[in-house]
Write a structure and sequence with these properties.
This protein has 128 residues and is mainly alpha-helical. Helices cover 62% and strands 0% of the residues. It contains 5 helices and no strands.
Amino acid sequence: MPTAPPPPPSSPSSEPDPARPLTEREKKVLAELGAELQADDPSLGAELSRPPATRSPTRMKVDRVVQALAVLAMVLVLVPADWFGLVLALVLMVGLPLLVLLWVDPTLRPRAARSRRNDDSHPQEGQG
């Protein structure tokens, strides 16, 4: 006589468990760890208490260009010379149509760029 299959595992709830407050023991252990870390490396506390450094948009663009050039240099060194024709053809066949689509159809552009363009072209109410 066949046996019934086991019930499926209960699905985890989509909502996370609410955070419970720390117990006194946990607070004490964390305070001891913090004191130990401060004693081991006093500059760490100062470093962690500072706000994170922000980069200017220009600096971020320069970093992206340098990263792209580094990747291109690695590709030029590592990919066999016979493959360059194939890679170039694929990039042109796929990349150019995508660029044209992004240029022609504004709904395909990233959301931030669309909203920035919309804000510039439509003055807010109450402005001249």
